[in-house]
Amino acid sequence: SVADPQINISLRQVVLLRMWMSTIWGWLFSVLDPEGINVEPVKLAEIAQAFGKVPASYPKELKGVIWMDQAGAYATANLPMHMPTLALSFADTAFGTLDPESHSVRQSLTGSAWQWQNNAEAYLRARLMRVLGAHFLFQFNSNYTFAQIYPALDLGRLGTWHLPKQLLSFAMARQYPSPSTCPPREQASKDEISSCATWDRISWIPILGEYHYYVFEIIDADGKAVEPYFSHYVKMGRSAMSREDKDSRLGIQGIDAEAESFIVSPTLAQARAEL
Predict the structure, then answer these.
(1) Of 73, 180, 188, 221, which has the fewest CB atoms closer than 10 Å, so is most exposed?
(2) What distance in Å separates the CA atoms of residue 274 and residue 272, rounded to the nearest whole number?
(3) What digits encode the pLDDT tens for the residues 164-175?
(4) pLDDT in tens, 67-106
């Protein structure tokens, strides 16, 4: 019989490959977005203060801070891949405000109310999302118990492009946990924990099928931490930290290797436009 071929990659080769990829990304970013991005370190326990307040006119379903447990650190998740993100709120009114008639709101992936993990992949993804003008359009139903989420790109002169749900469908369905089983007991299974989540986040990908992960409200409408979900969010965020050096060629300013997470600051152009 023929033995399976062995692929041996040395540490030196891995380092050289990463350096090469960083150089390529750095060159691409310098062409597409020469101004680069600035990031602000955020302590996990201070996420509510970092995001700021959601407008008082918004429905209570949108007033808290929610944690996206995409990796299944706490509840179940079966995504084939996930973004290195943590939490969001709808407080970023500089980017988009809720339209009470259409029940829709835009949410930037590189705005003031979108939190990223502190690791190299997150910095790379954040830079790419800024270059592409990536954001989501949340289209809620009238009582804010369901949202169809449309991925969108703002390509400047080429306009804003939305991906139709027939090609890729993202949605959120509100859950109403039973007080008899939620909050979950300490030794609860991931399935039991999932039933206590605030939202069921549903993704449908052609050919591959349907995937789920769960979203937990970690800060309520009054600004108070919701336990035990808040503590598990902090635990997960800290476990995702990477203190390795972040490559400066990615054109990112404000990197703090000791930070627990980060949000993307406005670009210089945006700051000037807001003056």
Answers:
(1) 180
(2) 5
(3) 999 999 999 999
(4) 999 999 999 999 988 899 999 999 999 999 999 999 999 9
